Amino acid sequence: LSPAEPLMARFGLFLCYCAASEVVSLALRKPDTPASEPPQRPSRALAAGIGALGGFAAGLLGIGGGALMVPLFRKSLRLPNREAVANSAVVMIVACAIAATAKNASIPSLLSPTGDPLTVSSSLWLAALLAPTATLGGVVGAMLVYRVPLGAIRGALALLLGFAGIRMAINGLT
Hints:
6 helices
């Protein structure tokens, strides 16, 4: 076992818990947020902790927004699904820009599987190829989030979290 595998397994189990919780809520027809609860301003410490955890996960694992922050926003801050997705996206813009800069700055010190040094230019070339379609996908997704029924969005989130969680847990345990 490498040092990363237990972390991967734990994170995978966390994602499975989030997926199962969402499936149970959907099956019991629980509303996205209880109507009896008035909106509350979240605790600064809790929000800062979620932000730090999301940024750490983004920097370490390349994830954080949908896979980590949305479930934490929903469970801990009790945000409605669409608000959690929107807030996560805004937070990740800043976190990803900083993490990408730091990661690209460290690329020259890394080696490819063949032992050749990696280059910043190859990393930026791939980013340039992916950015236009990723941007288009983000725009389409943002337009659909308010048009697709909330139950379908919650179901898709549960499927994504469950699939990712199972894969990470299995890979972390084997």
